[in-house]
Amino acid sequence: MSRNALFALAGVLGALGAVLLITGLVLLNKDVRNHVSENYRQYAADGGDGRYECSGSPKSVADDIASYDAPESRASDRGSEYLRYPDDIVIVGPDGRYPCSVRVEDINSRYSGGGFIFLGPGFTPGSPAGGSGGSSGGPGGTK
Description:
- InterPro entries: DUF4247.
- Keywords: Membrane, Transmembrane, Transmembrane helix.
- This is DUF4247 domain-containing protein.
- Pfam families: DUF4247.
- The protein is of the alpha+beta class.
- The chain has a domain at about 30-120.
- Helix content is about 35%, strand content about 25%.
- The protein is built from four helices and six strands, in the order H-H-E-E-H-E-E-E-E-H.
- It has helices at about 5-30, 30-40, 60-70, 105-110, and strands spanning about 40-45, 50-55, 75, 80-85, 90-95, 100-105.
- A six-stranded antiparallel β-sheet has the order 1-2-6-5-4-3.
- A hairpin with a 2-residue loop joins strand 3 (about 75) and strand 4 (about 80-85).
- The radius of gyration is 22 Å and the shape is elongated.
């Protein structure tokens, strides 16, 4: 191969590498909010948050959503499944006349603290510091 042909091949391989890198980054950036809105029928909207009808058990629907994009944390409480993502919490469980409902809530706009403290570690923001007066509790603190 001539020197010019090798330069051309290197240019083509470099461009292909850049295209594949960008494609990989786009595929890594999953958005659970869009996934839910594209796969479930919305029946109500609460501000920027939505409620979607699902079929099956809340656990199996939560498993499906988690298989699309793994949550940072997951918990169950009273028949509902909670999936914690960086900016959202997805709640799958019964809602009024819907035996299976998916609710996506934006953490940053609604919960300034304390919303999901009962679910345990990973569901921050936790309770507000000094929320009941006094210190925040824990070692050296009293509640």
